[in-house]
Specification:
single chain, 94 residues, mainly alpha, 2 domains, 3 helices, 79% helix, rod-shaped
């Protein structure tokens, strides 16, 4: 977690997860959290945007892995086709 002392990172992560769960299921906690976030200038749109920005790197990495797998698949299919073509006997023209 950015800006958190490594000694307290586990505790901060646990606290953040607990707050996120409370925000989702407890309407009173959600109101309190929304009020605190609004005091710092954050709203749902800003939070969603930040989550998207932070997830973008992982999504780009995942897309790269998918593209690499597809390229390897195409090369393998091409090689299989070539091997089948070479292994079939040549027909004589009539």
């Amino acid at each position: 977690m950015v800006g958190i002392d490594p000694d307290f990172e586990d505790r901060a992560k646990s606290y953040t997860q607990q707050n996120a769960l409370s925000w989702r299921i407890d309407p009173i906690a959600a109101t309190e959290i929304d009020t605190r976030l609004a005091a710092y200038g954050f709203d749902h749109h800003g939070i969603s945007t930040e989550v998207h920005v932070q997830a973008r790197e992982a999504l780009v990495l995942f897309e790269g892995l998918l593209n690499a797998a597809q390229a390897k698949r195409m090369l393998l299919l091409r090689e299989i086709r070539n091997q089948r073509f070479l292994s079939t006997p040549m027909r004589r023209p009539r």
